[in-house]
Each structure stands twice: as C-alpha cells, then as structure tokens.
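Fig. S4 source data, part A: sequence.
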Amino acid sequence: MRVPFCDLPRQYRDLQAELDAAVLGVLSRGDFILGEDVQRFETEFASFCGASHCVGVASGTDALHLMLRALQIGPGDEVVTVANTFVATVQAISLAGATPVLVDCLEATGLVDPRATAEVLTDRTRAVIAVHLYGQPADMRGLEPVCRARGVALLEDAAQAHGASLEDGRRCGSLGMAAGFSFYPSKNLGAAGDGGAITTSDAELARRLRSLRNWGAAVKYEHRDKGWNSRLDTIQAALLRVKLRHLERWNAARARAADWYRERLAELPGVVSLAKAPWTGTHAHHLFVVRIPGLQDRNTLLSRLAAAGVEAGVHYPRAVHQQPAYAELGATGSFPVAERLCTEVISLPMFPEITEAQVDHVVSTLRSLV
C-alpha cells in the first residue's frame, strides 16, 4: 500500500468540474490582476475567520512582512517569535528591517511559551508573532495580557491554521491585531501555486495593507507609500473560493484521521503524539506530528518508511537559530525544548482523503521499524 504525504491529485479529481469552471471564468473575463474573484474571496475568507477585512497577497511570507511594514515596524525594532518555526516567519521580520528575537516553546505542544515571551520583551519590542504550529492555536490567552501590558502588537502566523479555533470559538485570523495566512498548495486551504492573505479587524491597517501590496498606491499612478508588488492572483483566488466551501468538511476529515492515529499510537511505546492544548477548540491538523525521543537516525527511518510506501516528513529538522543564515540569534543550547523537538519530530501522512486502512498501514509500518 502506498500512503502519500499529501494527495493533491486526489483533491483535484474530486473537485475537477468546480475548479476547471473557476479558472475558465477568470480566463473568459481576463481580469487577472485584483479581479472579481480576489474581492469576493477576501470578503468570504474574512467572514470565515471572523475578521472584518482580508487582504490577498502573493505569499504567506509577504503576508507577515507586509503586516509588519503596515505597522511601521522596521530598523531598530524587535519582533519576538518562537524558535521552532519555519524560517519564513523570521525572514519576514528581516525583510521589514527589524531584529528577530527568539523564544523557546512548550514541551507538550511545541507552541510558543508565553512566560518565555514575557521575559524577552524590551523597550524596543514592537510585536510578538504567535505561530499556530501544525494547525493548533498558540496560547493567545497567555500572550494577550503580556502584550497588552507592554503595548506590543500581538500578530498571528496562521500559515498552518486555516479553520483552527480557541475553545471559545474564535478562529485563528481574528485573535490578534492581524494574521498572516499562506495558501501554499499543501495547506488545508491551498492554491495551485503561491498565495497568501492578511486578516484584520482594523480598517486603517487594512487600508495601508491594500496600498502596500500594490506599489504603495490606492489609486493608479498615485503612490503615497513605498510599497511592494504582492497581489493574490485572480486565478488563485478563484480556486480558493471553490476550496473554501469544502474547508470545514476537510478539517473534520483531518480530525477523524488524527483520532485514528492517536488511538493506534497509544499502543506504540516510544512514539508520542503532540498534545492537544487545553485552550484549543478546533485543531486544524495541517500536520500530524509525533515525537520519537532518543531517535538516533531519523533519515534511515524515513527511508525505510518510504520503502514500505509511507511518505513522511520533518517539520522542522532545525530550530531557526541553528540555520546558518540566523546563527546570530542564539548558540546551540539557547532554546533547549525547541532544539530537542527538532531532533525528535516526524510528520506522518495527513490529508482529508486518507483512509483508516492507510492510517493502519502507516502505524503498523512505524511499529515494525521503531
């Protein structure tokens, strides 16, 4: 049995008629740049997240970068985020000209530690980017008072959290001053290429973002800001509008698959599923990540899984400060929990169409190898 890590061809086959019609609609109208489907998607996605505004941009990295620029965060400012995130979170801070400051994560979930965050805030701190890692909301209840007391903007990296929510029902995308989403093809809500969006309920912030994504112009050839060329393509927006209608169903299917994994992995000594946090209402399960403490040779394990037909991955093999580009952010040992998790984690196949038989094959194969 073959179990892909993510089955995008299957998703296309299931929605082929809808997706083809959406693309042909854009081609027939010819409104390729900031066209009708971009505006409609922005309205629909803002409503889905519980935010007042959505601004479509070219990628998830641009979403984070432009959020910071719209808040006039730049050289001389510090922005705090967690050490065990994808490098794009930190590169967005660098693109804005600000200084990244890393903190450690929580052992059970891998999410940012609010106490560690409070300890690194200084007079130069302008924002905290809370990463909703693997599809689970960060502890916004713990972060909100910390940021409020210091007058620091609390922002969301929601690139993996489409549809995730806190226990009170508020969805990611409406929990901070603004949130950045990625629509990379393998995301829960994925485009057919790069794409991103920012959600916010701050009307003035949304206005600035719409200007910044379009060379700093709200009116053609009138450039009031030093902007960027970062617009969500109309064809991608059209595809996302189709997929958005299926997102809650897909997330429910992911949750069911996660339950299958947890039930079976509970009987497998040496493999630990990351915990669902007590503040989480809906976990989007973008990834299903397990830890194997004491794992000595992860690459060999991944190769043997692949030989048995199981595609697995690693998110992420190094903490940000262990990347050569960001070595100045901390020596090895600076963020021990994040560093340990990065050596132990494996991402198992997870997609809405995965079957119980495929989950059984993944777990039985893992059992035979571990």
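Fig. S4 source data, part B ends here. The longest strand covers residues 125-131.
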